[in-house]
């Protein structure tokens, strides 16, 4: 019998399975939880204790405009990305495996390319003397160069291009799981292609659209490089404002408050998606 047992001392035991998770929990605590708590603490203590930073962000029209721009750009980018990604994902889902692998490799390769390099490439393409305007003018479609940069159009084009893989990948998995016989049965019953898409394919693909759409929307909310290079001062987004507050104005309190608001909105959207998906699965199971 051990000394602890003789003295009546019980040694606390780690629950089964938790021992293997302990290093990961410590890592998450040190590099995720602690920084978030430090961010929250600084937002309510700098320059003085209180909620004045949040009051300034939520009560000032200038900051409200930045919030509006951020959500507008994220919403537009998400909608356009879904519209572009869906036919591409459907094509990848029904193509022969060999050709699908090649196209998947091209999509993945674009994700590995440096983000700054891709953004500068779009700057060259979209400027007034760029390839796109020259091609349109050479074809006689336009007489004057189109304003494709330093505005919402340029930001949308650049961010949609970058976000496409994050929308295509979950959509392909969802579309591949749909039984092709379902669409054939609909056609045999006299359903038109549009009716089959609207009543069968689209509802069955909603989980992939929701997963990819949330990912694109959340990533768009915090994007910095592409909006900063392709957008203008009238289209400033929240990430740009945070960087300006901290790097240029050294206003850590206001920047921390803005970053914490962005984090709370992101977590709320994620919780909403989990709730909607859970409710949909419950209804489907019933």
| Poorly predicted sequence stretches spanning 5 or more consecutive residues | none
User: What's the shape?
Assistant: globular
- Largest sheet descriptor: none
Helix proportion: over 70%
Distance, first to last CA: 55 Å
Mean pLDDT: 83
**Strand-and-helix sequence, N→C?**
HHHHHHHHHHHHHH
SS-based structural class? mainly alpha
* Extended strand count: 0
Please work out how many helical segments DSSP would assign. 14
Radius of gyration over C-alpha positions, nearest whole angstrom: 25 Å
Beta-strand portion reads under 5%
This entry's quaternary arrangement is: single chain
Keywords: Cell membrane, Membrane, Transmembrane, Transmembrane helix, Transport
Protein name: ABC transporter permease
Membrane topology: Multi-pass membrane protein
Subcellular location: Cell membrane
Structural features, described:
With 286 residues, the chain is mainly alpha-helical. The protein contains 14 helices and no strands. The chain has helices spanning 3-6, 18-45, 52-59, 61-94, 97-112, 115-126, 131-138, 152-176, 180-188, 193-204, 206-221, 225-230, 238-248, 252-285. The longest helix has 34 residues, at 61-94. It is globular, with a radius of gyration of 25 Å. It starts with a helix and ends with a helix. The mean pLDDT is 83. It comes from Mesorhizobium humile. This is ABC transporter permease. Keywords: Cell membrane, Membrane, Transmembrane, Transmembrane helix, Transport.
């Amino acid at each position: 019998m051990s000394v602890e047992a003789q003295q009546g001392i019980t040694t606390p035991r780690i629950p089964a399975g938790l021992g293997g998770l302990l290093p990961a929990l410590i890592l998450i605590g040190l590099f995720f939880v602690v920084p978030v708590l430090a961010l929250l603490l600084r937002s309510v203590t700098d320059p003085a204790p209180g909620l004045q930073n949040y009051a300034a962000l939520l009560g000032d029209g200038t900051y409200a405009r930045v919030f509006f721009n951020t959500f507008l750009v994220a919403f537009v980018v998400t909608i356009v990305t879904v519209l572009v990604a869906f036919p591409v994902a459907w094509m990848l889902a029904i193509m022969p495996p060999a050709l699908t692998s090649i196209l998947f490799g091209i999509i993945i390769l674009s994700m590995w390319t440096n983000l700054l390099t891709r953004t500068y490439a779009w700057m060259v393409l979209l400027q007034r003397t760029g390839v796109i305007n020259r091609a349109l003018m050479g074809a006689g479609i336009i007489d004057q160069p189109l304003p494709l940069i330093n505005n919402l159009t340029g930001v949308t084009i650049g961010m949609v291009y970058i976000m496409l893989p994050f929308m295509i990948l979950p959509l392909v998995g969802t579309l591949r799981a749909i039984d092709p016989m379902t669409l054939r049965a609909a056609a045999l019953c006299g359903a038109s292609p549009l009716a089959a898409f609207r009543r069968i394919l689209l509802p069955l693909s909603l989980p992939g659209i929701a997963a990819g759409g949330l990912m694109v929307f959340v990533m768009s909310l915090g994007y910095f490089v592409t909006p900063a290079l392709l957008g203008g001062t009238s289209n400033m987004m929240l990430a740009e404002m945070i960087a300006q507050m901290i790097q240029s104005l050294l206003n850590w309190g206001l920047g921390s408050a803005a970053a914490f608001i962005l984090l709370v909105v992101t977590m709320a959207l994620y919780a909403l998606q989990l709730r909607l998906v859970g409710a949909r699965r419950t209804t489907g199971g019933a």
